[in-house]
Design brief:
Layout: E1 4-7, E2 13-15, H1 21-34, H2 36-42, H3 45-56, H4 63-70, H5 87-91, H6 97-100, E3 109-111, E4 116-122, H7 138-142, H8 149-152, E5 156-162, E6 169-171, E7 176-184, H9 193-198, E8 208-214, E9 225-231, E10 239-241, E11 259-260, E12 265-269, E13 274-280, E14 285-287, H10 289-295, H11 303-308, E15 315-317, E16 322-326
Parallel strand pairs: 1-15
Antiparallel strand pairs: 1-2, 3-16, 4-5, 4-15, 5-13, 6-12, 7-8, 7-11, 8-9, 9-13, 10-12, 14-16
Helix pairs in contact: 1-2
Length: 328
Amino acid sequence: MQHQYIERDSGRIVTERLFGDRMVRLLYHGVRENSPILFRLLTSSWSTYVLGLVNFDRPLLAKRKFLSGCGIDLAECLDPPESLDTARKVFERRIRYLDCRPMPAESDAVVSPADARVLVGSFKESSMIFLKEKFFSFEELLGGWSVWHKDFNGGDFAVFRLTPDKYHYNHTPVAGKVIDFYAIDGDFHSCNPGAVVSIATPYSKNRRVVTVIDTDVPGGTGVGLVAMVEVVALMIGDIVQAYSDVGYDEPRPLEKGIFLAKGQPKSLFRPGSSTDILIFQKGRVRFAADILANMDRSGVESRFTEGFKRPLVETDVRVRSLIAMAAC
C-alpha cells in the first residue's frame, strides 16, 4: 500500500517516497516474525551506527541528482552548496529560518518543532481525536518512574514524523522555562509508517530525550506545561542538544532553569528519519483547524488509516508554522 499525506500550503494529496521501504518491510514483516534475535540486533545502537556510516558519510558522486531527488532548496541554506558533499552534511544543513520559516506573531501560538508530517491526538476518551496507546504508551513514553504523568493526564499530543530528506534541526515550539530534562534509553525502531503500525507503541520503546517546559512564566507562551519528546530511530544515533538564542550562534546544552525563546534552534537529529512528540496539559490548547480537517479527509491512502482502523491522514508542516493556540 502506498502512503499519502496532505501538503499544507496547497491542500493537494501527495504520495510519499518512502526511503528504504522495501528494507523496512522485510525487517518488520519478515525478520521480526522469523528471527527475533536478528531483529533485535538490527534495531540496536550498533546497527544504527553502522547503517548511518554506510548511508550518510560516503562522498556524494551525483550530488545534483541527490539534492533534486530530495527536493532540497539550496537557496534556503546558510552553508555554500559545494560544502554539502555527503548525505550527512545535507541532512545536518542550516537554513535561513527567519526568512524561510516565518513564525506567527501571536504570543500564545504553538509552532511546529520541525519540518515534518504531523498527526494530533488526545488522551481524553470523550475527544474526537482520542488515540490512546496507538503511537505510544503515555506513561512509558515519559518514563515509567516519571513524576509528570499526573500533570499531563487527559491532555493532548502532536506527533511530528521527520523523513530522511527533511531539515533535521528541532526548534522550540513554545517559549518558557525548562523545569526538567532527561534521557531514556531504548531501541532504534524505524519511523516508517509501515513499521509504526506493525509494532505496539513503538515511540515509547525507542531512545528519547524529554524536555518539560513551563510556559506560564513571564514571556512564556501561556499554554501550561509542555513536554517535548525527541525520539531517535533507525540510523539516528544521537540527538545533539544545541539551543541558540540568536541564529545558530553559541549553541549550548539544555539544563534546568534556562529560558527558551520560541522558534529557536533547540537540537539536531543525526540523519535518517525520526520523531518529535509534544504533550500538552488538559484543556490548554486547541489545534489548528486545517490539521484536524486533514486527518479525516477522504480519498487519501494512509498506512496509519489502515493500521489504526480509522481515518488518520498526516499534514506536511514547516518548522515554526502554527500548530495550535492557547485555549480560550
